[in-house]
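During data preparation, we tokenized the protein backbone, and the record follows.
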Amino acid sequence: MHKVKVVRSNYDQSAPYVGKVGEVIGHWGADNSEEGREGFMVQFSGGEVIAIAEDEVETVG
């Protein structure tokens, strides 16, 4: 997969991760999201996995 950096937080669960880089391990979308948002399942170095909306991250090269 690829790495992303959390650049903004639109939701409480992503706020502690702003500025951190994690690895995308999956995708989530309208089929498994109550509000129909699109995003990524991202794993961070401490082992935490959270769902992050697409507009909260940028790809790390």
